[in-house]
Amino acid sequence: MREPRDLTRALLFAIVLAVLAAPAAAAAPPQPAAEAWILVDARDGERLAAGDPNAERSIASATKLMTAYLALEQRDLDEEVAAPDYRPAASAESLLGLEAGEMVTYEELLYALILASANDGAVAVAEGVSGSVDAFVAKMNGAASRLGLGRTSYANPIGLDDPLNYSTAADLAELTRVLLEDPRFRRIADTEAYTVETDRASRSIVTRNDLLTRVPWVTGVKTGYTIEAANVLVGAGERKGTRLVAVVLGAPTEADRDAGVQSLLEYGFSLYDSRTVVREEEGLADLPVDSGGTLELLASSPITVMARRDQDVETDVEAPAELVGPIRRGERLGKVVVSVDGREAGSSPLVAASSAPAASLGDDVRENFPTLAVLGGAVIVIVVGAMVYRARRSRGTG
Fold first, then answer.
1. For 69-122, what is the HEC assignment?
2. What is the pLDDT of residues 373-396, one digit of tens each?
3. pLDDT for 20
4. Read out DSSP for 302-368?
5. Alpha-carbon distance 162 to 60, whole Å?
6. What is the pLDDT of residue 16?
7. What is the pLDDT of residue 395?
8. 253 Rama class: left (phi>0) / alpha (psi -120 to 50) / beta
């Protein structure tokens, strides 16, 4: 019979083993110091964390994301526009310092909008695209409706406080997802410093997004501040092909704003595993060759994807049903595609593991014997029929 001390040790040992064997519990999502926030996967819009994401709030210069969207949608970015005579309503407004009539391209204005949050640049875009601010605001609201941003309203292209200028964390995340599909926007949003060139002057600007300069994998996107909105940040980050968007609205300080977005993005990336789905030189198919036998196809490079634990990862081989020789070892004969929840996440060429000769005449005959037999039979029937017909005509006219 075991002593009580031995039983106690055995019980403790069993508990330790159970704890070690149990899967690690997912960390709880962060709670930013802000009025509303959201974290989404930019690829599929999956919501990963949120706090009051549908609350309608003043959004300050995050308004300029829609201004940028319309400029990208409707204009050649190399086209020039004349700067309007913009009169700021307050001395604290962010301005590029454009003079009335100064010629500047839409691309330069987009850098000024996203990096320096230039209000005069936003008005220049509005009047250039639509002829007037009022007409442009109507376009902004039309685009919001078209994109399904049902809790968003615009009153100006800048983001000045107005009862009719508001959005939600969820709507801003969706608009940002759309913008990030455009490589031109991604390039601009991921820029730390830039020199805006016009026909009269050069102006150096730097991003107001401190995270972009401090965190290597942060890729944008837009800051904002007004008295009513408090501190706003729409942020994006990318790691190994996974792009996330985090939005924080109504943070009391810039430090809270930045910390909130960074903690959301870090939490989001913690939900993804890096998986090597296809290994280099892994055999993925054995296909018949017209000269006989089969030939193995190998992946020429590995495929590693980032996927959440709840996502389906699938592998699809794209190759001919039968291979036709001659085939050289290493010759590319198809590809393998890896998808995550139905979206392509990576691919690799498939190459021949060995050589294969061309089919010989005998191979062709054997392979096509049924067809040749049918054709030969048809020819014999036609020839015999012709001979019979000719013999009958000869008897009838002799």
1. HHHHHHCCCCCEEECCCCCCCCCCCCCCCCCCCCEEEHHHHHHHHHHHCCHHHH
2. 555 555 454 655 556 456 565 555
3. 38
4. -EEEEEETTS-EEEEEE--SSB-S-B-TT-EEEEEEEEETTEEEEEEEEEESS-BPPPPHHHHHHHH
5. 10
6. 35
7. 57
8. beta
- Token pair, residue 229, equals 């909105």
Judge contact between 343 and 374, C-beta under 8 A: no
Of the candidates 100, 68, 128, 116, the one whose C-alpha atom is nearest the C-alpha of residue 198 is: 100
Q: Which two tokens stand for residue 144?
A: 């919001």
Measured in whole angstroms, how far is the alpha carbon of residue 176 from the centre of its chain?
11
Distance CA(392)–CA(387), nearest Å, equals 9
Q: Which residue type is seen at 261?
A: V
Q: Give the residue carrying structure tokens 């018949």.
A: 288
Q: What is the pLDDT of residues 108-143, one digit of tens each?
A: 999 999 999 999 999 999 999 999 999 999 999 999
Closest CA to 183 of 90, 72, 267, 103: 72
**Number of C-alpha atoms within 13 angstroms, CB side, residue 206?**
4
CB atoms within 10 A of CB 18: 9
SS3 257: helix
pLDDT band at 89 (very low <50, low <70, confident <90, very high): confident
